[in-house]
Model the fold of this input.
Amino acid sequence: MPIEYSIDPARRLVSAKGHGTLTEHEVFAYQKEVWSRPEVAGFNELMDMTDANVSEPPTTARLRKLATLSASMDPEGVRSKFAIVAPQLLAFGLGRMYEAYRAMEPASTKEVAVFRTMDEALAFLGIADMN
Done:
């Protein structure tokens, strides 16, 4: 799978990493597979796009659809954070667009932020290190 993930119940964190060329379909599949699991409700999320390439940038309508889907899967009244690590220009820009669309979703309870480095993302999530 181009997006690998692990669940850390002690940290209440889902860590994901994109590999190779990602398609829109794979991103939607990741969202549905992981966030439909009841045991991760309210967990923070870390998505590392350092080793990933976007095959074809999604349209703004598709990014908005992903934001709407994601927000609809948030547990009501439970705040959490989602950090995206995206050093590449295109991935960073798409992440910022997703961040904006997600913030506009009334059902969203997850604060999204995009960073160029892992250290910045971990600081945002309040994690000292990943070891």
Q: What stands out?
A: The first helix runs from residue 24 to 35. Residues 21 and 55 are 6 Å apart (CA to CA).
